[in-house]
């Protein structure tokens, strides 16, 4: 799929820790793209624009702040936005800005968790965005070591903020996820390998070597999602990829991805994506550049 996404060469050099740039614009015209660098994007006064992050598509509000992980396809598009006075601040930094060994220290646990979530894209709450907006826009004027300290401070405050939500489905991104639990990782590996088959709570509990009731509580505590929600996310990620990478019908894709009831599939898909599978395919492809 990613062979059909523009690979952006960002202005960030190997000699810099990060770069920040601001733009005044009357619309969005840059195609769907990805890049190695992680990105924090603040968009002001663009209500009605459309955001695509991974397989998530959504019309945005007047103010938003999104954290995009390395190699995750993303883009903003004019769509229903009528404003001609849009302001955009973009911070890009190397994915190894914070060394992996350092990132695993206890004091950085929240930032480590946020970096893991960024593989799916993170949308921060309106309250968090309003609170941190002056510091993000003010980062343009900072230089040298003080700019690094401020960026790290901003990342920390974002990582401890409330009300954020992840956007894309995990299995859509092809990134490896760390759950700090070998049992959970074995279960997710099993579900990713067998998503097209019938998978029961009993099956995954056996993989984790736990009683069903204990595992049900365990996965909810570790991931924040129930077993069924986790399985549906994996299946929907594969559905999304097949909708974009193949010409197979919606029903064929649904059955291949483990959904045996079309009414339930359509309801689950629309609840998660905010549109029907056909609308998703159309909305995504119209903003995709073929190379």
Quickly describe the structure.
With 291 residues, this protein is an alpha+beta fold. The strands form three sheets. Strands 2-9-4-7-10-11 form a six-stranded antiparallel sheet, covered by helices on one side. A three-stranded antiparallel sheet has the order 6-5-8, covered by helices on one side. It has a two-stranded parallel ribbon with strand order 1-3.
Task: Describe the protein's architecture and organization.
The chain is an alpha+beta fold and about 290 residues long. The chain folds into 2 domains: about 160 residues, Jelly Rolls, CATH 2.60.120.280; about 110 residues, Homeodomain-like (Arc Repressor Mutant, subunit A, Orthogonal Bundle), CATH 1.10.10.60. It is built from 12 helices and 11 strands. The strands form 3 sheets. Strands 2-9-4-7-10-11 form a 6-stranded antiparallel beta sheet, covered by helices on one side. It has a 3-stranded antiparallel beta sheet with strand order 6-5-8, with helices on one face. A hairpin with a 2-residue loop joins strand 5 and strand 6. Helix 2 crosses helix 4, helix 6 packs across helix 7 and helix 7 crosses helix 8. The model has no long low-confidence stretch (mean pLDDT about 90).
């Amino acid at each position: 799929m990613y062979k059909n996404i523009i690979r952006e060469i960002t202005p960030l050099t190997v000699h810099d820790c990060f770069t920040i740039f601001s733009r005044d614009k009357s619309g969005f015209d840059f195609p769907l793209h990805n890049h190695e660098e992680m990105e924090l994007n603040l968009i002001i006064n663009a209500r009605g624009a459309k955001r695509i992050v991974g397989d998530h598509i959504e019309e945005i509000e007047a103010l938003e702040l999104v954290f995009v992980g390395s190699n995750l396809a993303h883009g903003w598009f004019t769509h229903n936005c009528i404003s001609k006075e849009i302001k955009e601040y973009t911070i890009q930094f190397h994915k190894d800005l914070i060394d992996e060994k350092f990132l695993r220290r206890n004091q950085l646990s929240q930032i480590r968790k946020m970096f893991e979530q960024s593989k799916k894209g993170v949308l921060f709450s309106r309250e968090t965005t309003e609170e941190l907006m002056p510091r993000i826009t003010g980062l343009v004027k900072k230089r040298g070591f003080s700019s690094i300290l401020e960026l790290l401070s901003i990342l920390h405050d974002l990582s401890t903020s409330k009300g954020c939500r992840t956007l894309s489905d995990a299995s859509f991104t092809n990134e490896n996820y760390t759950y700090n639990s070998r049992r959970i990782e074995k279960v997710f590996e099993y579900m990713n390998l067998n998503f097209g088959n019938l998978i029961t709570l009993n099956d995954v509990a056996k993989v984790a070597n736990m009683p069903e009731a204990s595992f049900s509580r365990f996965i909810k505590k570790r991931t924040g999602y129930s077993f069924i929600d986790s399985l549906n996310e994996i299946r929907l990620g594969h559905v999304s990829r097949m909708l974009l990478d193949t010409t197979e019908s919606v029903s064929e894709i649904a059955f291949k991805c483990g959904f045996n009831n079309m009414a339930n599939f359509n309801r689950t898909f629309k609840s998660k994506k905010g549109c029907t599978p056909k609308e998703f395919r159309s909305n995504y492809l119209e903003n995709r550049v073929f190379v």
